[in-house]
Each structure stands twice: as C-alpha cells, then as structure tokens.
Amino acid sequence: MPVNILPPDFHQEKYGISVRFVTEDDAPFILSLRTNKELSKFLHQTDNDEAKQREWIREYKKRESEGKEYYFIYSKDGCPFGLNRIYNIEGKICTGGSWLCAPGTPIEQAIPTSLINRDIMFDVLGLEEDNFDVKKQNLKVLRFHLMTGSQKTGEDDTNIYFQATPETHRKGKESILKLLNISE
User: What single string gives the DSSP state of each residue in the chain?
Assistant: First the structure.
C-alpha cells in the first residue's frame, strides 16, 4: 500500500470513541455543525445546502482515495458527535483542522477526538508535522493547543500558526489523558 493512504473502510475505536470516514449520508450532520453560528464562527463559511455538501463530499472522496485528505466522523454509542480533517498532505507534512463537536458534547469526549486525529496522523499515516493555524479570537482552541505542546511558529493579524510533531503530541497527549482520567 502506498504511503499515506488509508483503506476505504478505515475505522478505529479509541478512548471509547468510534472514528470513520465521512460519507455522503453525513451531509446533514456536517451541515448542522458547520452552519451553527457559535460553532463555526472561526471556520470558513459553509452554505446550508445539502446538495452542495454531498457534492463536496463526492469530490473529497477522490482526494481521500489518493491519500491527499481525510475527513473523519466521531461517534459514541452509534451517535455522531464530532468531526475533523487531515488535509494538505504533502510528503510527511499536513494540516489538521475543521475540528467541531456538537453542542453539549462532554469534554471527555470532545478532547480525545483531537488526540485521535493526531494519533492517526502520526502513528497510522507516519506523518511528521502538523502545521496549522488558529484564529486569535478562538481562545479556547488556542489554550488547548498550547496545553498539548504544539509550538507557535508565527502569527499575523488574524491567526497564530502552530506546529505539532509526533514528540510534542505524545507528551501533550499523556498529560491531557491524565487530566481527563482516560487510559490509553
């Protein structure tokens, strides 16, 4: 199997959470999160149009099959509650983002989705760098990434730029799991 390509039936269970690839049938759930004004205020705007979302997913599936991008749905007891992506995959470098969880998701469920995303990124795909940005106004997410050991690499008027590596991820993950009382 070529480097950086996950099988089309990829599925994982970790920390009591199921993770799988997005399908067209997830379009209503994705739209419910991405068009929620509070949740999506720091993301690119998404039209509340299910047909457009399904078309975007069909195009994404082509990138998924080429190992260029992965879009995940997280669920607990069969109920989807979150999503995030690994994209801009170039060699051993990528971007993790589009991280959203449904309103009311317990922190013990929400935080592990980010950890799982990086576990897949570094341990399954063998990537070496996650280069990402966070809007300066997104204080909760900024604090989270600093707590998990991501290193600030720069900033502009709008964003702070970060880098996470397998080493920073492992250190940060250990302390976060301990804080949340979740075992590996």
Answer: --TT---TT-EEEETTEEEEE--GGGHHHHHHHHT-TTTTTTS----S-HHHHHHHHHHHHHHHHTTS-EEEEEEETTEEEEEEEEEEEETTEEEEEEEEE-TT--HHHHHHHHHHHHHIIIIIS---EEEEEEETT-HHHHHHHHHTTPEEEEE-SSEEEEEE-HHHHHHHHHHHHHHHT---
Classify strands 151-155 and 159-164 as parallel, antiparallel or unpaired.
antiparallel
Alpha-carbon distance of 130 to 165, in angstroms, equals 6
pLDDT confidence of residue 3: 57
Q: Give all strands of the β-sheet with 93-101 in edge-to-edge order.
A: 11-14, 17-21, 70-76, 79-90, 93-101, 129-135, 159-164, 151-155
Cβ(84)–Cβ(141) below 8 Å: no
C-alpha 147, offset from chain centre: 17
Using the predicted structure, report yes or no on whether residue 1 has a pLDDT greater than 50.
no
pTM of the model: 0.92
